[in-house]
Amino acid sequence: MATIVSIASYPFLPAKVGGQKNVALFYKYFCRYQHLICISTKKNDTSAAEGYQVLNILSNSKLRYINIFYFFLIKKIIKENKATHLMIEHPYYGWLAVLVKKFCRVKLIIHSHNIEGMRWKALGKWWWKILWRYEKFTHQYADYNLFISGEDKRYAIENFGIKESSCITMTYGIEWETVPPKNEILRCSELIREKYKINNDEIILLFNGAFNYGPNLDGLKKITDIINPKLQLKKDFRYKIIICGKDIPVDISSKQYPNIIFAGFVDDVTIYLKAADIFLNPISEGGGIKTKLVEALGNNLNAVSTSNGAIGIHPDYCNGKLFISNDNDWEQFANLVIEASNYKADMPSIYFDNFYWGFTTKKAAAFIKQG
Q1: What confidence tens digit (pLDDT) does each residue in 11-70 have?
Q2: Same domain for 43 and 80?
Q3: Cα torsion at 158, 163, 164, 169 (round to 10°)?
Q4: Are residues 195 and 290 in the same domain?
Q5: b/e string for 283-318 if b means 16 or more Cβ within 10 A?
Q6: 3-class SS at 146?
Q7: pTM across the whole model
Q8: Looking at the predicted structure, is the pLDDT value of residue 285 above 90?
Q9: Are residues 16 and 52 in the same domain?
Q10: Are both 195 and 162 inside the same structural domain?
Q11: Are residues 226 and 335 in the same domain?
């Protein structure tokens, strides 16, 4: 078993939102196959790390990204632990990783969560191309490139000029291997229906996310201002939309929207995922795989998503449970909600083969080992 030193340059423990979970859960399962030591920031709760060691030695200051003295500290850690590989989350510490690779003679792994340059371009940042070139430089020096979706992997091969043999898809995952038991789903449904006074003949639609993130907030506005009014026009369609997540703006949550329930931040969103009938994913910007959609489908929900929002999830894995509309075609989106409300099927085993953390991290570990 090789020793890998990783750098996660931001707080991710305890993991609460998708990006943090993508690091914490990846490490939790990956360390079953490779010895892992993570270097991260002081704000992490090290007791939340499962199966791997976390060294809280990076400053919380933004200046940590240009601190040359970290090179000597990481070099020492690699030498003391006889590490053979260095892994970084995202490309932001690319300059440091390249230096460590050169002078410590370790192999470099990049765990990519998005094509960061293109994500920031979609969010309207003027400096996106500078980051894109830096990202390209970093990936070109890597021995192993782990991409969150097949689409990102193909993009990098074609636009960064890296070899396909150095790339693998390492998607965001779930921690269960089969659909939840029927009795558990029924229990959660009864609990949520009773809590919010939702009738048994009403379809529960769910959207959740952190609404301090622009694309999630935009998706929420699409639901309140466009999708919900269109659903109200659908004859005999009885439904309620539950919105879960932190930082819902007061000017939205304080309004009375027909059929919309603002649950806000909830301690256990899995109860809502199991209780719902359909997951709504009206995200039409931002990069990478949408973690909440992966979790919703894994909980056996039907889901209606924009084309952009469904990136990284192949419909062939979903047994017809993923309904995809064209981006910004909200009439089609609303019609697919009606269609999804009448569709009965279970998520097939192929979905869990591709998204269960235990399977995907084992493949990634074997990919690194064989190199």
Answers
A1: 999 998 888 999 999 999 999 999 999 999 999 999 999 999 999 999 999 999 999 999
A2: yes
A3: -90
A4: yes
A5: bbbbbbbbbbbbbbbbbbbbbbbbebbbbbbeeebb
A6: strand
A7: 0.91
A8: no
A9: yes
A10: no
A11: yes
